[in-house]
Backbone:
């Protein structure tokens, strides 16, 4: 059961759709999926240069409390590694996105819809079964991880059906792209460190 919970938390790290974001389209999901090999190659090049942005095994919430793994990583990169940020921006443009921010935003929505599709039906119930009393008995680090996971589960529970529908025609290609990225050590994929 613990392994299943850990797997669910790992999968959840892939990102939520935000209220007010443009609805996911199948065309955008296809563009994002098609960009993953180039993004993986870029991430491997960053790692070779000593810029390992993918070593965190912990999901991160954005400053506003939302769960956006691609957007959050991109924001960190923009400040700490501007040259690499420019490369991601160029990759995004070559994938027919207007810029890296749009690429990351679409990636967040794609991954959240993907997780919602792959998550076992009772996953949310397992997290919501954690009472405040149970949480209080846990070490602070474990409690913080579970609080983050609960926030992400809430986002997964609220994935618009339209996003799931838009992703459906792309699912097989996305599965293949994520599998390939997971087998690559430096993929520009927030899930890559979780899959190792």
Residues:
């Amino acid at each position: 059961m613990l392994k299943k919970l850990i797997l669910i938390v790992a999968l959840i790290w892939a990102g939520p759709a935000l209220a007010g974001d443009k609805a996911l389209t199948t065309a955008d999901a296809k563009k994002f999926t098609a960009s993953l090999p180039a993004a993986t190659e870029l991430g491997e090049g960053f790692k070779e240069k000593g810029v390992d942005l993918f070593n965190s095994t912990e999901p991160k919430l954005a400053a506003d409390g939302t769960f956006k793994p691609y957007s959050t990583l991109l924001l960190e990169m923009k400040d700490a590694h501007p040259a690499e940020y420019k490369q991601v921006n160029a990759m995004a443009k070559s994938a027919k996105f207007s810029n890296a921010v749009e690429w990351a935003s679409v990636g967040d929505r794609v991954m959240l819809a993907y997780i919602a599709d792959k998550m076992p039906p009772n996953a949310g119930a397992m997290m919501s079964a954690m009472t405040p009393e149970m949480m209080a008995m846990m070490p602070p680090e474990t409690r913080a991880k579970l609080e983050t996971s609960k926030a992400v589960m809430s986002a997964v529970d609220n994935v618009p059906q339209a996003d799931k529908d838009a992703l459906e025609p792309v699912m097989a290609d996305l599965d293949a792209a994520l599998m390939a990225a997971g087998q690559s050590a430096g993929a520009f994929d927030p899930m890559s460190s979780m899959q190792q």
In short: The chain has eleven helices and no strands. The first helix runs from residue 2 to 12.
